[in-house]
Amino acid sequence: MTSTEFPCSPDQFAAARAWVAGFQARWRSLDPDALRDLMHADTQNLIPPMTAPADRDGVVAHFRQASAMLPGLAIEVVRWAAVDDAVFIEWIATATVNGQPISWRGVDRVRLRDGRTYEGEVFWDTRRLAERIAELRQR
Q: Is the pTM of this model over 0.85?
């Protein structure tokens, strides 16, 4: 890449910035249904511990279950970057387990079309998080 090339067009960057702002706003205090307008109905998102990607309804159902298991579940964006139609978001999640605070870091990679997700994948250390949740549940 030369100094005059950019990883995405100005329109792609503007769409990514708007999407990240919406992502952050909805995750500050999670209402799973509020995530709907960030996604196309036929999006294909893979979020641990899913074994296959889910569409918009599946993603909302996933986060309903997650928020029931992890009271106070919220995400704070640390930083983000856009490349072509992809947006990479580093975040810190917080929640409580047995009244004890817990946090972990992760990354979302989403692809946007018309300002909404049509594909996404989420990454974090699932084993370590599961171990920490198990420890807190035993207290």
A: yes
